[in-house]
């Protein structure tokens, strides 16, 4: 048994399919089937129950999967630390990015960093702030962007962006002609919000409660452009960060919200008490320095 046996086993368990796991690993199905059979023979247990359309972990398989993931992670960390020790300026960086933000400046920063470190590759994972924090703690992401405040006992962070939210309405809405809208004036409206993986969902709900009402949520989504299209179809209203609302078409009205105004702060976070790779360290330093120069 070697590390590949465990890695192949992890993939089959993830996809619940030898075929899909083989496709993901770019190997043949007979090869992966043989590797899993060899692993079962070495361990003396059956790892999967073979069914017609999928494979399911046995009790022994579930037990071994937990340990296999631990061993695989340790092997990955060993490889990364050896690269760091040898001074090889390469690596792979996994970044959690909320789809709710305007990522243009962020992408420019990635591009300029890549010119300096062409052997570092990136994986951008779009998700809500709650999910991003969870994935960092589970070591599925290296760094991410979240909404402040964050758990300072678990994360280091530096400030990225601060902006207010705007009300987004259909142009024919009775309030569409106003220059400002008090939050309490929206108590009878139907809200289209980001789903509960997004801290912004909590921020809006809490602000509405402070204004004396619970928002009537008729739909939730993880995509800001889809929310904009729903508003444009007169399905309801939404509250979006100003930089995002300005990306929407002219088929909607964007208006400042007051009493209370709702703001959000974004920050880049990375875990405390966990190993940080060379790629992550260099990218964090580069990005923080770039942000400092932009503020000067």
From TrEMBL:
Keywords, alphabetical: DNA-binding, Transcription, Transcription regulation
Keyword Nucleotide-binding among UniProt keywords: no
UniProt cross-references to SUPFAM superfamilies, sorted A to Z: Periplasmic binding protein-like II (SSF53850), Winged helix' DNA-binding domain (SSF46785)
Domain spans labelled HTH lysR-type: 1-58
Pfam families (alphabetical): HTH_1, LysR_substrate
Family, per entry: Belongs to the LysR transcriptional regulatory family.
Record's protein name: LysR family transcriptional regulator
Organism: Halobacillus kuroshimensis
Taxonomic path: Bacteria, Bacillati, Bacillota, Bacilli, Bacillales
């Amino acid at each position: 048994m070697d590390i590949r046996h465990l890695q192949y086993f992890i993939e089959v368990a993830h996809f619940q399919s030898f075929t899909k796991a083989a496709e993901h690993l770019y190997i043949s199905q007979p090869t992966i089937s043989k590797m899993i059979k060899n692993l079962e023979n070495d361990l003396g247990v059956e790892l999967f129950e073979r069914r017609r359309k999928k494979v399911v972990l046995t009790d022994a398989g579930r037990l071994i999967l937990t340990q296999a993931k631990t061993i695989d992670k340790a092997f990955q960390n060993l490889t990364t630390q050896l690269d760091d020790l040898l001074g090889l300026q390469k690596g792979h960086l996994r970044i959690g990015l909320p789809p709710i933000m305007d990522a243009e400046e962020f992408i420019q920063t990635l591009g300029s960093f890549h010119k300096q470190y062409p052997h570092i590759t990136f994986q951008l994972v779009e998700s809500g702030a709650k999910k991003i924090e969870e994935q960092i703690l589970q070591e599925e992401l290296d760094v991410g962007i979240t909404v402040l405040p964050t758990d300072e006992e678990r994360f280091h962070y530096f400030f990225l962006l601060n902006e207010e939210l705007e009300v987004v309405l259909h142009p024919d809405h009775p309030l569409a002609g106003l220059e400002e809208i008090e939050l309490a004036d929206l108590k009878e409206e139907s809200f289209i919000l980001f789903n509960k993986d997004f801290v912004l969902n909590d921020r809006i709900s809490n602000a509405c409660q402070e204004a004396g009402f619970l928002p009537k949520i008729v739909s939730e989504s993880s995509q800001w452009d889809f929310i904009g299209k729903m508003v444009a179809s007169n399905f309801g209203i939404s509250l979006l960060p100003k930089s995002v609302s300005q990306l929407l078409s002219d088929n909607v009205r964007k208006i400042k919200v007051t009493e209370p105004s709702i703001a959000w702060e974004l920050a880049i976070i990375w875990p405390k008490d966990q190993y940080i790779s060379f790629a992550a360290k260099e990218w964090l330093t580069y990005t923080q320095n770039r942000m400092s120069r932009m503020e000067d």
